[in-house]
Input
Amino acid sequence: MEYLERRVGLVDERIESVLAAVDPSELADELEHVVLAGGKRVRPAVTILACEAVGGDPDDAVDFAAGIELVHNASLVIDDIIDRSDVRRGTPSAWAEYGYGPAIVASDGLLGEAFALFSRNERAMGIVAEAMVELGEGEATELVDRPTNEAEYKTLARRKTGALFRAAAELGAVAAEADPVVVESFGEYAERVGVAFQMRDDVLDTTADADSLGKPTGQDAEMDRPSVVQVTRLTPGEATAEARTQSDAALDALDATDLPDTEAMQYLRDLAEFVVVRER
Output
């Protein structure tokens, strides 16, 4: 665990340095409220681990890892506004703390800082831009073109969650100057992990305790949001089993890279297993 904590620590230090330079100070405070309130840092960890798994130096991936976490947090600010969710990670959400206008500005600020971190690499910019398009399509689908079956739900999950996971892994591989086939395999791995993550998130919204989860539960039903349980009518246990299928496919994609079974690769494998059984 110390191995992973050190690497996530590098990302946190970079994020803190970026936010400390934000002007005006009021905006900096809002961005820090969003990003430094906690979070699993799963996506930046994937970026660093993918870079190392390919044989790169984790320092080369820190800017990309910090950037993908800022993009993720920007999307959460908007999610909370749409859902009227007043708690995020056990603290007031951005709109609940500062109001709708400042929260939207904070989301824009996070995206601006993120793209500044990606701007030195054309491939990175393309990867993140594509993920942002997918994310926007996912948000729109959830609001106006709701899925009605399992296949449509998985498309939504891929766009809403899988696309940003894919970007996280591809950025790490690009930082290590991996060839396009390896970049694609890491992207496939992470996209599958993201879909499994979203499916488990939907299950936890149905079954978990709000205090343990760090955010309100029952939101999917209350907001009439298309969760895996609602759309497919799978039981929570059946939905978790399907998440396991996605996890297994993610592991197959890792195997396709034929890379050495390093510590970084093992952590990536562990992540694919963890997203299925996590409790928060």
Q: What stands out?
A: The chain has one domain: 2-277. The CA atoms of residues 203 and 236 lie 6 Å apart.
